[in-house]
Write the structure tokens for this entry.
Amino acid sequence: MLKFIIKRLLWIIPVLFGVAIIVFTILYFSPGDPALQALGDNASPEAIEAFNKDMGLDGTYFDRLVRLVTGLCKGDLGKSYKTRTPVINELVTKFKVTLHISAYAIILGIILGIFFGIISALYQNSIWDTLSTGVALFGISMPMFWQGLMLILLFSVILNWLPPSGYGTWQQMIMPVVALGVNSSATIMRTTRSSMLEVMRQDYIRTAKAKGQKFSTIVIRHALHNAMIPIITVIGLQLSALLADSIVTEVIFSISGVGRYLVDSMTARDYAAVQGCVILIAFVSAILNLIVDIIYTFIDPRMKTMYESAGVKLNPKKLAKAAEVSNG
Amino acid sequence: MAKKTRDKNQHHSMVGEVWHQFKKNRNAVIGLIVLCIFIIIAVFAPMIAPYGYDDQDAAHTKIAPCREYPFGTDNLGRDVLSRIIHGSRYSLMIGFLAVTISIIAGGILGVLAAFYPKLDNIIMRTMDLFMAIPQMLLAMCIVAALGSSLFNLMLAVGLSSTPQFARVVRASVLSTRGQEYVEAARAIGGSDFNVIVRHIIPNSLAPLIVQATLSMARAIISASALSFLGFGIQAPKPEWGAMLSAGRKYIRQCWWLTVIPGLAIMVVVYALNVVGDGLRDSLDPRLKK
Amino acid sequence: MSEKILDIKDLSIRYVTEEETVLAVNGISFSLDKGESIGLVGETGAGKTTTALGIMGLVPDPPGEITSGTIEFEGENLLEYPEKKMREIRGGKISMIFQDPMTSLNPVMPVGDQIREVVLLHNNVSKAEARSRAEEMLEQVGIPKERYDDYPHQFSGGMKQRVIIAIALACSPELLIADEPTTALDVTIQAQVLQLMKALRTQYQTSMILITHDLGVVAKICNKVAVVYAGQIIESGTLKDIYTNKQHPYTIGLFNSLPDIEHETSELKVIKGLVPDPSNLPKGCKFNPRCPYCTPECCENEVEMTALSDTHSVRCIHVGEFDREA
Amino acid sequence: MKKIIALLLALSMIFALAACTSGGGTEPATDGGESTEGGETAVKDTLTIAHKQDMVDKDPINGSTTNATIKIKANVYETLIERTVPESEMKPLLAESWEWNDDYTELTVHIKSGVKTHNGGDLTAEDCLFSLQKISESSNNSVTEKMDLAKSYAVDDTTFVIVMEETYMPVIANLSYPTAVMFDKEGYEEANGDWNAMDIGTGAFQWGDWVSGDHVTLEKFDEYHVAGMPAISEVNFKVIPEDGNRYIEVETGHADIAYEITGVDIDSAESNPDVVLFREFTNDNSYLSFNQREEIFQDVRVRKALAMAMDLQSAWSVCMDGVGRPPVGLLPDNITDSIAKSDSPWHVDYPMYAYNVEEAKKLLAEAGYPDGFSCRYNTGDNSVRMAYGEFFKNAFEKIGVTVELISLDGATNNQKLKVEHDFDIYTWGIAATNGDIDYANRYFWSKDNTNRNIMGYSDPEMDQLIEDAAREGDPAKRSELNAKVQLKALEDVAIIPIYQQEDVHCYVNGLEGFVNGAYQSPLLKYVHF
């Protein structure tokens, strides 16, 4: 098991380098001069040249790539062009904010999603089922930014209950958490429902019934436990998706997290910051994936056997599944 | 020759069966109808819309929905209904073309990976790298690199979901490839290309269609989110996300400028989602086989 | 030997969906004395499993519903039991072994715990006691108790079926229903499992309903046989009645379709046609479309059971009118 | 099953932990929220401001001069000379007085005595010369343009002389420029020039806490050189980029002041008795112009025709939501020497070429484009300019000119406009940023190397006028030269101003002393409740 975790952790390293190279390459070919953005209209050509040298913006594609990779090896994400301070410092404070909101959002998503998913599956085709599947489908069809705006319109403008922006007080947390959480709860709910329906049809549920077990115990001990495997997968994916969704949420609710930092840096052509954000998000997603995989072993003993047996690299089947559901 | 007709019949009966299953799903049928309505609207937009999408009327700005302007007018005095109608073209086109781009790119990569073990590792590991970046971020970076325009937006959304299609196609081709009739086709000397085109692609279609429908829904949302963040379409094109973004500052006085484009996006995406769900459910028995 | 443990009268179960109504069980009646074992024989889809589920009170509802009949167990009608009381019966007094051992065990629970679960439910014992009982059961079915904490995926099919048998017998039930317990197993394993069941049944003095399509298995284990066709018993009797004095054309067909090693024939005799569509059963004798002796009367009225002896009855109006060996 | 429950519990603990740890950094924001409610009994002395963008850095000389950054820094660092708004007079701030020698080559500055810096030092003439030296070494060194700092010297502790390389009148305005701040030499040297570690200014407020992207707090400087100021003990700038949200913050009592509210919120603010609006025209115009490196736009008739196709009044009413106004001249009338001033002897009405579609068509035909032509129009990503773009697109189509709108993000747009010169029509801003009209004149100077002359306007006569104006010491003669520059730019349709910008802020009723300073930076030292 430990071997498996180490292997997976090691695998993250090339992924991060790969991601860094991809992002760097994309941004390298982007129009817009960072120096012009950072120094403003009055910058003299000499100042621009000095800036480029200072920020490592001079040299060919390969020079810069080599600099990026060697920097990464030392854990250096470079300096922000805008503030001329190390990107990593900004990222850490901002990431805390994003993580904070995402954590609440995913908890909300899990609670709502699993609860309504189970209800929906157990009372299939009942009014509750129709209602919650319908609402969930609306949930995933609603553009997140629109949902956020509607929340502001309703709770800040019309009812004046909640502050429309910022981060810190619990009142300020409600709307962003709801906007993020409702979206993921919809996905979790749909997965829970189909997974529970599938599991409830299984023979071992009948076996449990034949033992004389109570229905509620069957649902929780036998059915939910088995149904958790795809649910956990989706929760893991939702966590990564939340990180991406937080871009829009943070913009709408004026929250200073990684998402808004990314958008701001993108418009300011602060590529070092953009790279840093993307690498960080990729890193966190990778770690989350690993955690999900470890959780699998607790839930499904078959996985544990599989991991423990030699020659585990990436689990291709799971990744394929991931592909299917991501962004869902 | 005889074989061909039988294949055709089989194909026909499969479509029939799927349709039969699909019909039973009331929601999906409604979704399909809604979708068809939007397609019709998009195709005949200039005929249906009461005004042009860029017809400004300085005397009638920011009018709330009323009989003359059912969806109101915006800050430049343009009829929102007409803009929504014209905008359906962009949203549907973006969704459709973005998915087409990812199907083609992902399809080629997936088939190559599945068919040539030597390429498999390179292609799929590269796809892993791309998938480590959330789709939205990737799309943002691509738009930033290409510059914002309608085509670049589609390209960005399409390219960013390519890895997922590559996976689905690869998985589905791998499972199809193991089937006896494909082995048989290879055994009697069919070229790789022939086998891929004649046998594998048609038989891998089912999961691809489902994935495509659902991806189209996602593509529309992603594209509108990018437009909303300002990485999208050029004004005055009435793309819904851009309309929403422009109307955002009037949210207090002119709610219709944000509510209506948002609803339009939601309805189309909802329709696509239920149709996708319906298709998946009706294809399900086959997928399980 | 005369204490009746189970008495089923006129049991009918149907499944109602939007598209069709499936008449799965159409007036089945049979009874079982304590210690007896009966084999329900018939083709797939004849309604055997539904009958068993009916006894367990596990007919999925919806879509299933019991439309008529009584199931008397130890003198009380189970159909009138509330769910809570029924739960006490299930797994305790009546237990069931399911067809497919591969899927009947919860994959994420140690096998020992799955046995312990049933022990805990029906006996007022501590967890530790329940565990030792479960370990004992494992040993009895031939699995070392050290494997208590292993998961189902670490067991072979035959071993899993042994675990299921252990679960079924853990509370020393009065009645054991075994639904095709060996169908999914290899032939060699089949014999072992049958042997085990037979031994345990004797040990626990359990009555048994064995559901199978395999006449050989019935011969090894049961002392009574009921042949089920289209949700009805068409012939029932002791082992001897059925094996040596079969009367119904279907029973005859069934036996004829067995490969006969002694009289080597070039071809198996197969019953023509297919099991009738239970949503669209023929009028009159349900077997009439496939019966070589069918006459117009066969297609008119429902056919009643005719008693040939105390133990042997058959549902055919032409009893004795044709050559049984043909 | 227990395992799962334990696991889920553990997981939620992790999340909760994450939530708690990150929750720690958020308390200051809470304070801001409470302060607005809890201030009834005592006089409220904390201020929460809904601010559009975060400060970029703390460096006042080499750092960012974005509007949002200056709005904060201007309260911490001060200049020798202060430009008043809207009169645009140059007034003493750290300097007590200044005088020129006869040939305008030496400027003697007397600074106020007893000015303390935040790090406890006294501001001396030495410090001021050191500050100017550091400014000249920075990338924003246009402030010290034409100053010969090597020859400049301190007379005594409170007097120093700036020696000029040549006569250059804008130097006074330059000394009021927000990067021309004075600070403590010792403090600078101690911290090795790391501005994030220094607090060496003289402003009414000193640096408090800064959580990037979230908020900046400033604290009262007790030894501020003007007695009794400031009344506020703590200022909290909350960063709220979303336009509508800033006003909502004030309306719902979560902030005392909202900077830069949008036109759409003006009506609500006006009708709300608890909110006071603050409006003041800025000294910049937005303009539309053409790439005059291209042959087609070198023809003044084409530029004139397009100008006449533009109905500026309607455009303003449709696009601006009541903010700002249609331009009153080439430059706003609050700039010294602007001929838009109605009492200026050289005053001309704007627009010089009034809206007239027929005439416009005729001019186009004369220029050889009877059927019009097609071109691109870069609006940038500012929503107002995009709206103007959409409006003018329609207007130009009426005279047969088809326009493709291009709204690129800021950086790409900058690149296209200033570096690649890859555009046909564009909109940008023109202002006398430092308060001296010379700054605006240079938009038409062909030798400009600071990217102000985006349109590529080039006229030797104009160049001469601009250079002469900058060198002219006599105010009256200088005014005349400046007027000629403006008249020529108008006649040549070098640019077409399309609207004048306005500062719109709002604050809660009960707040007093809210005044704007130069560079659109409200001066918080005057604010009290």
Chain C has one domain: 4-93+171-314. Chain C has a mean pLDDT of 81. Residues 167 and 225 of chain C are 26 Å apart (CA to CA). The first strand of chain C starts at residue 4 and ends at 16.
